[in-house]
Design brief:
The protein has about 130 residues and is mainly α. The chain is built from seven helices and no strands.
Length: about 130
């Protein structure tokens, strides 16, 4: 399958609008659920709903199974360097860090963990950033 042109990339179909709205509604609902249950909200957001939707959208648009498989595998490896943030951020907030500095520090740490993951996996023949 050839790469799409910029015109194809930047054009939106009515179905693209449906995909955006459905994805946004899921995120909004999870945010609203957080108002009465932060644990249920966390459970729902931990489910790979957006990844599943992305793979469904990929299949619907005719992407080959190999491309969907590559997406799923890449998602697995890219999730790993984000996991420490979910322990470090709460620790920082509970130890007096203001929200925005803690979030910025965690973004920087996650970026560092991301690149460490990319470098380590290359040594095992897995190239996440070709």
């Amino acid at each position: 399958m050839s790469k799409p042109s910029w015109g194809e990339f930047l054009s939106f179909t009515p179905f693209d609008i449906v995909k955006v709205l459905l994805t946004a509604v899921i995120i909004l609902l999870v945010n609203k659920i957080q108002l009465f249950s932060d644990k249920l909200s966390a459970l729902l957001i931990a489910l790979p709903l957006t990844s599943l939707l992305a793979m469904i959208w990929m299949w619907q648009s005719g992407q080959p199974a190999s491309k969907i498989a590559g997406h799923a595998e890449g998602t697995f490896w890219f999730v790993l360097p984000t996991l420490p943030m979910f322990l470090i951020l709460p620790w920082m907030l509970r130890h007096g860090w203001a929200f925005w500095p803690a979030l910025a520090a965690n973004c920087a740490l996650t970026t560092g963990f991301f690149w460490i993951t990319v470098i380590v996996l290359r040594k095992f023949g897995i190239d996440l950033m070709p």
